[in-house]
# Entry
Amino acid sequence: QSALTQPPSVSGSPGQSVTISCTGTSSDVGNYNRVSWYQQPPGTAPKLMIYEVSNRPSGVPDRFSGSKSGNTASLTISGLQAEDEGDYYCSTYTITTMLFGGGTKLTVL
Amino acid sequence: EVQLLESGGGLVQPGVSLRLSCAASGFTFRTYGMSWLRQAPGKGLEWVSSISGSGDYTYYADSVKGRFTISRDNSNSMLSLQMNSLRGEDTAVYYCAKGYFSSHMDVWGKGTTVTVSS
# Structure
């Protein structure tokens, strides 16, 4: 059982928007603004997509956006493209450990 | 270009030791915290350990505390993970990443595979 809860799968058609949720507690997600999101296409290493809740690293399309409300963080992908398929993981931390969600498989129909 | 290249993985028997290395390039290595993360076959990401830029501070997941040791050589831009008393549940792809457990991992290596089996 993962420390952060994500839906196992989401799907959408090209051009649509999807949102992936990440639920923690008041001791982790709710307590820190250091929620990150990672994309992992099949057979590849993870890639940072969002950091500190809503910041995009250089090179990440603005179709990817992040937000947080209370103990739940969200990643929204608008204008879905086939290349967005893969697994998505949220993460945050507590005083001495880094936490991950169990991952969400995004399928572009 | 920032790059991380892991090495040292392999097939080992339970109870033995293995040392992973990560060669870093393209950034000022000594100024960044570094981490090891892993992913068991068909499973999600798991943080393993982090070390501060100076090497003075280290942190470990409970699952590896007392068995794994993270270290760094800032003069050669190398990160290491000494893994002792390996178990079957340590079987995973191990990733080296630029970043600290209390922040985010902005660069990842391609990973090295460790298989623990008799």
